[in-house]
Each structure stands twice: as structure tokens, then as C-alpha cells.
Amino acid sequence: DAKTTQPPSMDCAEGRAANLPCNHSTISGNEYVYWYRQIHSQGPQYIIHGLKNNETNEMASLIITEDRKSSTLILPHATLRDTAVYYCIVRYLYNFNKFYFGSGTKLNVKP
Amino acid sequence: NAGVTQTPKFRVLKTGQSMTLLCAQDMNHEYMYWYRQDPGMGLRLIHYSVGEGTTAKGEVPDGYNVSRLKKQNFLLGLESAAPSQTSVYFCASSPPGPHSNQPQHFGDGTRLSIL
């Protein structure tokens, strides 16, 4: 499975969009990009996932570059409750048992 | 809808003691997983199961055993606890299908300290 690189931390003002980048330059054609977050040692919470196309749900948007080597998670209007560690994970479609969590990005949403 | 429930939430053990962590899910998921998370690190897969009666090793299986006697339950056992097993343990489950791209759903964790 491809590895991911994320910045260790980011700040965002409350009410503004939070854009969290992820680099996955070695991603292959059958590997999906997943985003999870973990709020203060709670269990990881699923946010969104995608393969090629951009995706949007009630929580966030996922923008995947055309070459698929990087992606951005967008929280459109960050709130204080969005302060968490955000994990970008790349998983091969057929490797359901390989779900590697790296160190993630600590997003600090500030008033 | 409870989702994934882990018991206990906290536990302190002495070195050499044994215990079992219980994970229960009510979503009829075929696949279940046990992870551990050490301070400042991401999650690492210990064992997983693709269905009732089946288990397999993950990334860090040593010192742990698992059982999946019922579809909804996945047990993680420590036969002889060691201080290196002090960690937060998370259970997860995911929908059926060997090639599913569906996400895993996590419990809230069990915080285990071994003295």
C-alpha cells in the first residue's frame, strides 16, 4: 500500500474553511483515499473516501488531484469541535485488512 | 443504534495477569479488527477476522490471541500481560464483501495499563 505524508499540525480560524493536505505520490490505480479523524483519544471517526473523483458529504469534501498523487480534505466551516487529529489513509481495494494509520495532522481550530 | 461497543473502558493489570477485551457490533458486519494505539502514534493492526470462526494476524500480533465465536463479537486476549502492552485498544468492524471499499467503524477504545 502507498504511504502518506501529512503535516504534523495546522491552525484554522473558527468559521473558515480548513484545508488539510495529504501526499500519496506512490498511489496505484486500485488504491482508495480515506480520511478519518480522532477527537481527544476517542475512536477514529470516518469522514469520507474516494478513488478518482472529488467527493462531498455532509461532513467534508475530498479533492483528489488528477494524477492522484495528492488530496485535500476540506471542512467548509470549521468549528471548535473539529479540533482533532486527521488521518489520511490509502488502502488497496483488495487489502481490506491493511488500513495503515500514520501520525496524522493535528488541526487546531481557534476562536 | 450502538454501533461498536467495547468493554471494559479502562483496566489496570499487573504484569503476568491475563484478561479479555470484548468487542460487540450490531451492524451485522462480517469483518472485525483489533488495533492498538500508543501515545502520539497512529493505530496498528493486531488481529482481524473475516467472519465467524476465522481470525488472522495483523501487523503486531505477538502476545495477543483472538476469537470470533459469534459474528457480532470479537474477543482480544492477553495471556500474560507485559508493560509493553500498555496502550489504548480499538475495535472496528466493516461491511461484508472481500473487495469492499466501505470504511471501518470504530469503538471508543479500552485504556489498558499494565504495571
Concise overview:
Chain A has strands at 9-13, 18-23, 31-38, 45-50, 55-56, 61-64, 70-75, 84-92, 105-110. Chain A is mostly beta strands.
Structural class from helices and strands of chain B?
A: mainly beta
Distance between the termini of chain A: 38 Å
| Mean pLDDT over the residues of chain B | 91
Please estimate the helix content of chain B.
Answer: under 10%
Shape of chain A: globular
Q: Please name the two chains that share the biggest interface, counting residues whose Cβ lies under 8 Å from a Cβ on the partner chain.
A: A-B, 24 and 29 residues
Mean pLDDT of chain A: 90
Q: How many E-type strands of chain B?
A: 11
Major β-sheet annotation of chain B? 7 strands, mixed
Poorly predicted spans of chain A: none
Helix count of chain A equals: 0
Global shape of chain B: globular
> For the CA atoms, what is the radius of gyration of chain B?
13 Å
Number of helical regions of chain B = 0
Tell me what the structure shows.
The complex is a heterodimer of chains A (111) and B (115). With 111 residues, chain A is mostly beta strands. In chain A, 0% of the residues lie in helices and 47% in strands. In chain A, the strands form 2 sheets. In chain A, strands 1-9-8-3-4 form a 5-stranded mixed sheet, with no helix packed on it. In chain A, strands 2-7-6-5 form a 4-stranded antiparallel sheet, with no helix packed on it. Chain A is globular and about 40 Å long. In chain B, a hairpin with a 2-residue loop joins strand 5 and strand 6. The model of chain B has no long low-confidence stretch (mean pLDDT 91). In chain B, the strands form 2 sheets. In chain B, strands 2, 4, 5, 6, 9, 10 and 11 form a 7-stranded mixed sheet that branches. In chain B, strands 1-3-8-7 form a 4-stranded antiparallel sheet, with no helix packed on it. Chain B is globular. Helices cover 0% and strands 51% of the residues of chain B. Chain B has 115 residues and is mostly beta strands. The interface between A and B is medium-sized, with 24 and 29 residues.
